[in-house]
Amino acid sequence: MAGRATRVWLLLAFSWALLSHTATALHAGEKEDYFAACDKADALVKKANYPAAAREYERALTLAPHVFGAGTENAYVLNELARVYQAMGQNAKAEPLYRRSLKICEATLGPDHPNVAISLNNLAVLYQAMAQFEKAEPLFQRSLKIQEAKLGPDHSDVAVSLNNLAMLYEDRAQFEKAEQFYQRSLKIREATLGPDHPDVAQSLNNLAILYKGMAQYAKAEPLYQRSLKIREAKLGSDHPDVARTLNNLATLYYAIGQNAKAEPLYQRSLKIKEAKLGSDHPDVANSLYNLAILYHDMGQNAKAELLYQRSLKIREASLGPDHPDVAASLNNLAKLYQDMAQFEKAEQFYQRSLKIREATFGSDHPEVAKSLHNLALKQV
Prior knowledge:
Layout: H1 28-46, H2 50-68, H3 75-87, H4 91-109, H5 114-129, H6 133-151, H7 156-171, H8 175-193, H9 198-213, H10 217-235, H11 240-255, H12 259-277, H13 282-297, H14 301-319, H15 324-339, H16 343-361, H17 366-379
Helix pairs in contact: 1-2, 2-3, 3-4, 4-5, 5-6, 5-7, 6-7, 7-8, 8-9, 9-10, 9-11, 10-11, 11-12, 11-13, 12-13, 13-14, 14-15, 15-16, 16-17
């Protein structure tokens, strides 16, 4: 079994300068309230206080028609509110907001404007998180094409699109292509933002996950360590992004058999996520899932079962019953039940996991091969 690493899709925010020219003359107090709500929400996002940020963006959204004219919605606020809902794991709320934002941008700015590229990228990120890869890829590609044409090939927003396309190719087991895109993204970000920027840490984290998945552990570990160092210094020791790197470093130590190093990292990661994101967030499910794998490996089956079940419940509720992460939880619960000689239950879970993976990835994907292999072993 392998621990589940947490990757970071990169979302983009609109430029104020590209939007503010559309504002109409209005009462000074309304304008002040609108921008104050946006500024407060931005600050809350940086502190990972997403519920409070959502309330401020929602307040700004009610004021937007007064700022931008009757009946006209504000693409900026829609995009930012969608990003917050996505960070909270509420994808169903995020999707219509991204779509509305994109529609406004295309209508008011034209199809090749940089803010259109931002909307395309963010909607694609959402679809990728929902495992709707066929919807995500053309949006990423269109976003990248606009950015390279309008901003130049070495712009930081180009790096974002490259990173996200790399993640898509990684999901499709196109590892060589994914590595090239990750490396180009990292190079741009180091050159434009500096070697210690949090966005550089994101790129390091995602490249390390790729190497870990390819069993290139010696390449992965220093990238994780550097990412963790940057994040702790720039974001604080209890930020969700720190928790994600702790989780990922733990999966590496587990993969190379260093369980004593992995367990405290998983536990610290889980503690941060529950405090900052809430107990029902998909990232919490990832940490529960990974701790369950560790305890299963250590023969602590009762502990493992409880954690797997809680992880599965969160994933089904937040991601839907046919998501690949649900398939992973089902697969590992099946392994546990097989080890506990509960063979009927194991087979049911294996079959359901296989069905999801075949529907999502197609019959030739490595994850499908793993499910078929597990079913074959169960029948021996």
